[in-house]
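Researcher: Go.
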Amino acid sequence: MKKTIILGLITILLVPLLVMGCGAGTKTTIELSLDDFAKQNNMVKNITVSPHGIITVTLGSNASTGYQWGEAAIGDTSKVAEATRQFVEPTQEGIAGAPGKDVWTFDAKAAGSTTITFSYSRPWEGGEQDTYTLTINVTVK
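Model: Structure:
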């Protein structure tokens, strides 16, 4: 009787942990500053993530220059989908024109390959386009 109760309690405690572990995927982070892009305007990164993995992309951004990162262009949204995007204010207080960061998270949905493309431009008509670009080749497996 005691063995049955103990086994039951262990099962009740372990099942949620096992279920949470099964859904966990890889976490991949790409972080690039404006200085990185000044050295190489057009970058390509290749990454592999597991299904249900999370991709975090952090790119330097300075709207005071008139430039901004456009919407992330995803080749196949059945493989990868944008979850969030937020702007993180500069950490240097009191410095006019200090750069901040745009941070995106993406969820890996299903096995396969796709691309995520970013472009840093002056968005108005006649403004400089694709001054900096980042293409991420994503393989979900």
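Model: The longest helix spans residues 2-23.
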